[in-house]
Fold these 2 entries.
Entry 1:
Amino acid sequence: MAAHPDQDFVSRVLAVVESIPPAHVMTYGDVAAAIGSRAARAVGQVMAYYGSDVPWWRVIRASGHPPIDHEAPALEHYRAESTPLVWPAAGAYRVDLRVARWRP
DNA sequence: TGGGTGACTAAGT
DNA sequence: CACTTAGCCACCC
């Protein structure tokens, strides 16, 4: 439990993720940039711990791949939101960043 | 104060 | 296109 003021890195990251509309996604780097930082890895840490209450599946890697070990549940959300996907191989997929990338 | 860690990224093989 | 290497940043011990 992090006792913290409401302007720390974590709160800002969560605020940006919650602002991403359905059928759209942002990369970890984009989220970090949105709050004036380049700590893409720190964003991942925040999602891993606090992401349970935000649309974490809308935050993916720059390559279009969903978070490691979370591809399956993420896919369920993408299908429900009609997020544009591409299938370079059977059993594997990635988000079509060209269309789904959200730019505030 | 210093060092290790990770739901990352970009560039090179 | 997939894997590897080095660089970066915020957080925890």
Entry 2:
Amino acid sequence: MTTIKDIAKVAGVSVTTVSRALNGYFDVNEKTKQKILAVAKELNYSPNTLARGLVMKKSKTIGLLVSGMSKENLKDNFTFEVLCGINEAASTLGYDLILFNTNTTKQREKTYTQLCRERRVDGAIVQGIKKDDPYLKEILDSDIPCVLIDIPIQTDSVGYVTTDNVLGAKKAIEHLIQLGHKNIGMINGHEGAYVSEERLKGYLEKLTEYQLPVKKEWIVDGAFEEETSESVTYKLLEENNEIDALFCASDVMALGALKACNKLGKAVPDDISIVGYDNITLASYCLPPLTTIGQEVYKIGSEAADLLINMLEDKPTDLCRYVDTNLIIRDSTTKNY
Amino acid sequence: MTTIKDIAKVAGVSVTTVSRALNGYFDVNEKTKQKILAVAKELNYSPNTLARGLVMKKSKTIGLLVSGMSKENLKDNFTFEVLCGINEAASTLGYDLILFNTNTTKQREKTYTQLCRERRVDGAIVQGIKKDDPYLKEILDSDIPCVLIDIPIQTDSVGYVTTDNVLGAKKAIEHLIQLGHKNIGMINGHEGAYVSEERLKGYLEKLTEYQLPVKKEWIVDGAFEEETSESVTYKLLEENNEIDALFCASDVMALGALKACNKLGKAVPDDISIVGYDNITLASYCLPPLTTIGQEVYKIGSEAADLLINMLEDKPTDLCRYVDTNLIIRDSTTKNY
DNA sequence: ATATATTTCCGAAACGTTTCGGATAAAGGT
DNA sequence: ACCTTTATCCGAAACGTTTCGGAAATATAT
């Protein structure tokens, strides 16, 4: 493995000069610079980022803390799509990604700060953790630059990127109301998720705006899981036959709701309209195709990386960013007279 | 940031002793060891892996070269599932993952060896590259330990994990033949993929075994894309009306084939049976649900990580591993009399 | 000619570890 | 009493960079 010293020896200069030449400083003569570059190429030199990181105290590396990488989360590719977005932005900006795992017990032995400091990452992007995750407190307490995904909390060193979930939910409900629905139930995720909190808020505000009935028993949690959603929906509709539309906080749960409707002999959308959230791939393939709120998930990822890197490089930037949502109308909703 | 020196000072010993205590050597007295551990904890010490990597010439890091992380590949979660498997195995074995990107032009400026050497990764796992990718040659030429996914090539320093694609294809064709199909066409992927080569081989061998017609014009490439598959299938079936079953080298392409059949007014499975490959999530949701060949994708990933780490730690292991496939019968295939 | 500025280079320290080779002291053997 | 082993510790070098402060050589101004 050739080093900067080898180059210095061959080129007949000092390591200082080699370093400065390679890094484009201007206090090295053009001719010697060319010579050094040539030698470096000839010796097939690659810089050692470990050594560099050691002295510069920067690693040009971003730590990724993702909790949705277990077998269970494979159905929706939200996690993956965010990852792709991060990856794309980070790599264009010259940063590498290092993947921390948060679900195996093995890794949980280490604290967030340990994870980051051991690898000397410059900053971190955190996705998929719940409100009560101990990591979250640590993130907010530490001064490691960090971007949260879908958790709208901000400190001096942590920002976030998310969508306007209140607005997204409102779009869904507005759509249902325009179709003439009046008795709208909601299948929410779980208490640990900020997005659940906000989508519920949008749901409530929009109903109130139109002075439609708001009933506590029409709102149930489906844990963001298809099976759970199916069973709670079954119970919900059995006990509240007057419900004519359902707003689900995720498409995966909407799929469960769909199954429940089938079992109950309720036709979607003729007997009951359903709108989901996320616009997962499945949404356009299931039967009927789901009306849903789409998010630019890839962009969430790339914005997160961009935001973090701006923070790292002290470029002025707002510490929070929002990406758009849009209503996608398919066949699971229809007019109700 | 507290270092080993700080600990040494506070504990009143040398850095050598601290290092050896922290790493569990036996030439340090139990009492001083406890003391050092206590001080380390109190000072909230985290080891600097950069420094360690520099002197040990090992980073406990695995490089990940993945090509399926662009916007286009989101439909099938094969890539992601492999990633999850790798992540799980690697993290239990104490390795971190660093993500290299191979599709942005930015990263393509660097060669495979540069990528690996700069970050001083101990080894690499490579996924989704084509037979003619220049990286592949480099991987085989270099002596960096590497595991290829779905590319059955082996050298002193590179192994692979894959499924028996010949066998998988045979299972599919056997199923169709047992159902009474005789005129079986194939929608393959593209020439750049080993899996295509092998699935074709399985298809041909099985047909030959039963002395069924093998026609070159019944075999077309769908580029592993839904749209391409739809158009080639359309053309194929229009020109060869006698075809009564289709073997698709991926579920995504099977979905395309499904659409083509719809447009042609051919009912699946009554007019024509279709079997896919991969068992993607969509396969069980589309209409009709797809009969397909399932792979334990998660396991492909975890085996890859396990294999690589065995190689890195000089544990004896076969350089190639196979994971199982199984036929999953759903509603896109039926008897043909 | 001298004084000053500019260009081009370099020595050495620093980053935080690990590890080789040996030192010291205590324990054991004869 | 002396020699040998064992347990415990440490100094210093090494890993491959970057960078501070300054030196030498050359150009420019007076």
